[in-house]
Amino acid sequence: KTPEQLPLLFPTLELAQAVAGEWDAQGKEIDSTTMPMMTLTCTAIDWVGGERDQAIDGVADYAGHDLLCYWDESSSDIQDLQNEIWQPLLDWTTLTFDAPLATTSGLLSVDQPTDALKALHNAVCTFPNMELAALSSIVRIGGSLVVGLALMKGHLDVEKAHEAVLLHEKFQIERWGADEEAEERHVNILTEFRTAMKFLSLIRA
Predict the structure, then answer these.
(1) What is the pLDDT of residue 107?
(2) Residue 167: partners with Cβ closer than 8 Å, 6 or more residues away
(3) 197 and 151 in contact (C-beta within 8 Å)?
(4) What is the distance between the alpha carbons of residues 64 and 122, in angstroms, rounded to a whole number?
(5) 11 SS3 class
(6) What pTM was computed for the model?
(7) CA separation, residue 10 to residues 1, 5, 68, 168, 169 (Å)
């Protein structure tokens, strides 16, 4: 059973075997942090399955303030990086979903076209519950629906997605150096991305 006492049903044998392996690896006490496939499966069944509309809205709402829409114009170097890494992703979003997003500089919110927001909401709706759980994990930790969709659609690999969501932070690190907290956060994002994509591969097996 899931934490909500629903049947723990798997869409593929491969996912079931992966979760069984996580359980087999447990010691005397259960450590949920070492069971990412179990966690995502239960999230898909309990949360997405029980509140699908709310889950869709929560993910799709990131389109209204997507990380890739907030550009830094403080130097030509960062602008070059944004044009190299972010702009192609925004162009892909326009072509793939007919959802052109507006960009701005600074932190002040920019209003996005209503049709673009609707198109991206519709795109999120197409994912079944298990895949939506993976997409939600990617989007929430990365702060970008554009990157999440590109990963889910196979347009980006994990390393490129990680590079995109940390573009500004890594640029600052190269200038001023890293701190332990930032490095830990970067590792956590990469781990979450890899976990979500492993989960996706298992449910699509």
Answers:
(1) 76
(2) 81, 82, 85, 86
(3) yes
(4) 14
(5) coil
(6) 0.94
(7) 12, 15, 34, 39, 38
